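ping. complex inputs:
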Amino acid sequence: MTAHPSAGRERPEGKFAAWLYDFRQQWQLQLMVWPGVVFIIVFGFLPLYGYVMAFQNYTVTSTIWNAPFVGLANFQLIVTDPTFWSSLVNTLGISLLKLVIEFPLSIVLAIMVYELAGGVFKRVVQAISYLPHFISWIVLGGMLVVWLSSTGLFNQIFGGSTNLLQQPGLYWLIAALSDTWKEVGWGTILYLAAMAAIDPSLYEVARVDGAGRFRRIWHITLPGIRGMIALQVILWVSGLFGSNLDQTMVLNNPLNDPRSNVINFYVYQVGLHQGNFSYGTAVGLGISLISLILLLGANFATKKLNDNTSML
Amino acid sequence: MKNMKIVGAAAVIASAALLLVGCSAGSGSTTAADKLPASRVKVDANTPSWKADSKTKKTLTWYVDQTWWNPPMQSKVAQQISKDLNITIKYVAGDDTKLNTYFASGNLPDIVTLSGGTNPAAATANQWALPLNQLAAKYDPYWNKIASAQTMDWMKLKDGNTYGYPSFSNSAADYQSGQIKPEEAFVIRKDVYEALGSPTISTPADFVNLMSEIKAKYPSLTPLGFSANGALDSTVQDLLGVPYYQNGKVYDRNTDPDYLKWVEAIRQVGANGGFSQDELNATDTVFQQNVSSGKFASVILGSAINYASSLQALMQAHPGEQYVAIPAIQSTTGRKPVLQQAGISGWMPTYITHSTKDPESAMELFTYLQSDYGQMLTNYGWEGTTYQKNADGTVQLLPTIKTQAASNNDAYNKEWGIGQFYLFGHDKWKAVDPTDSYPAALTTIFDWGKGYLTPEFPQENATVFASGSVQGRDYTNITNKWTTTLATMVTAKSAAASQKALSGYESFRSGNGWSQVQAVENANVKASLKALGMPANASTPNN
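pong. complex structure:
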């Protein structure tokens, strides 16, 4: 390796000079980071100016620069819109059901996979559990529509004859369970990665001390992935108001609409179908703000539980 | 770290500035019609201008707000258009998102076709399109000879100018001419109907009994079929002659007592196993499969012309099992059906935009396509090569062309392009070829519906709400609630449960600004009645 031009020189005092010095020292790393930073700026930050629409009456023929400002009028409309409130209830209902079912299940599945002796069986189990994640909702939803129809798979097994997707009362459960089926395997990946980092000697010591399998899971595996669980809780909680648009687009029908109309779907309908961009944007902005508050709140709570170390 | 932030912020500001510059470039285009360039040729009210203007080479971009728009540009019809006008047309297809991107940039293609007259952009066309009446006067007065005066009048905006011209716009005279065809009917399989003794069905009770008889006699068939899209409300209402407007006001069709009697009958049919719940959310593909395989014993059919190929497929594969139209779903109060076809607003309106540098060529293209010459070319091709003229003035495609169209439709469309350029289309041009324009399976529907087609022009713009208005939002929410309610009503286990769903709908809409929604609709109808020169207290003509 040839000597770096700045090698051996002292890190200069001035702020910019110091930054330039650091940059030269790590230019290879910087080269790898910057495309990502630019990407986030272009696709994550620049489009934020579009939120201006939430405070305007933006129509198809206006531009962001000339649409009239209406202040908080759009937000006042939201508060008086019963469909918005019912979509909010549906979003929270489905998200909480998913949190209760899917979140613990992926931990359990991760532990089960981890406890399997290595080899072909383990890899097959993992592959099969990941598989549904890679099928798009369009395909999977189409399968579900057929399976849940009045003469479909489920009715043939259980001997019924009602179209299950047309029962508004069942929709939340169908949405949560189908999402669990699709994503639970994929959700184990991060836990398995965290488990791989646990020192194997801990298990040996525990075994010597006479700890059974469940004791080892309880006292070694679970504490070992505690940080990862905390991180996942934060992400789940901040995603409570996020809803699965793809899933709703496929499974929604006029009969289950009172229970399946979620916020994303409502924004999509109001914004793109009706061309009411300002209203749709206002709903989206409001939900983003609430999600941000939830994210910070969850981070604060887990920090307290986790010896004051933040997971973010 | 702090320095990094500064650099990042600088990058954001720099890129935002670039973006601002890029976007504002096109937004200063408020060219008024009086700034139009002078005409290249001497205009004449009796000759289309394109005939004198073929020396100039022209290029136009034409945006069509339908993702599926993809006419065969290598076809012989396309080449003929290019040759006649010395023009290169570049078509761009897309959806509303693409259209809105154009609007946001302020830089539109030369010609824009909207997906329909109720698209919010249509109401504000004066902000982005050139007035067609002024373009015609300046560049091509021949247009006024061939365009429908009633349509031009109907499309006028508040400033008195007409900006867009819709395809398939029908005037009141068109409705009476017999050239446009009814496409709503109750149809039943011929063999099934005859096997049951061709009973006369006129009351809801008769209808319920008929469906039960079919169920008993043909257990493998589904007695009643309907498309998930509007068959159970608008089509049934049209068959029953439920008015659209009464005494100059919008009529509340969904709670019409006569209609509700039939909803109850359909509920009873469903309770007796007369249709599968799955039909309520079946895709159009599934519906078409059931029609073409004859799985439905009877069908409530709206927009039959869209299902022509499925109906024809059944007729060809199983002669004698084709669907026939019968008067079964009938008013209990003696009203005549009010069948609907494309109204005076037509289908897709086409505009010449502010952004065009060559409004003259765009106007010539409009005239060309709208003229008899252009219509015959795009609908039938060339006399002697693709069609022949009969003694009575009608035409017919030549047998070789018909064979090619029937055997390999894709290749036929690609080679000839006949019937593929219809953005200025009108049903009267289909009527020029009475034998082959529509498949034989539709004849029964046309024959039954003859005389029931009723123009409902005053209500066509009833549900146009200002973009971003509360009433627009409430209207959509109420419409969605109705879809859910109707589905709940026809699948309810008892009449009481069905009634409960209806009451739920009625209280939902009164809590969702129904009175204001109706006020806007009534104002729209009032304005339309005035524009059409009809009395302010007019009603749907159906009794």
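The CA atoms of residues 65 and 99 of chain B lie 7 Å apart.
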